[in-house]
Amino acid sequence: MPIKAPQKGDFLISEPFLPDPNFKRTVILLTEHNHEGSVGFVLNKNMHLSIEDTLEGFPEFDVPVYNGGPVQPETLHFIHKLENLEGCLHVIGDIYWGGDFDALKVLIDLGKVNKNEILFFIGYSGWSAGQLDMEIKEKSWIVSPAKEEFIFSNNTETLWQDILKTMDQKYAIMANFPEDPSLN
User: Does the predicted TM-score (pTM) go above 0.90?
Assistant: First the structure.
């Protein structure tokens, strides 16, 4: 089967034995991919913090914050379904990235944002020009079209396996590989 070239709106699913601890058994939503590089956010690394714990003065809004990746861990990012949020960038379907943060806080304070339509991330995953393409050729990543039901899934502990199980037989088998084959 030919390797799928990545594009904005795809999932990057780490290969079962990817040694990098930042990306072990992760699913990344690719929000940008072009000749300059790539940006995405890890969807299944819950930091077990709420946005209120992370930002002082943020409106009451009890949603988790995820570790988006190892790049710029002092930054906060968000993906959402708020197409009218000024400054947001379209990713795929009705999924958007970023936008006017002050306007977002007002919408949250007014109760106009559903907790199931937004995800917050500390840091992001980034690749320089050509780097991600090379990692895919080295078989570090499986590229698959993103599915909205997985982006906003509450099953972050099993997200990696859940997505692989929906793919062809080869990947469904990978979903059951042990994390450490030496313990098998």
Answer: yes
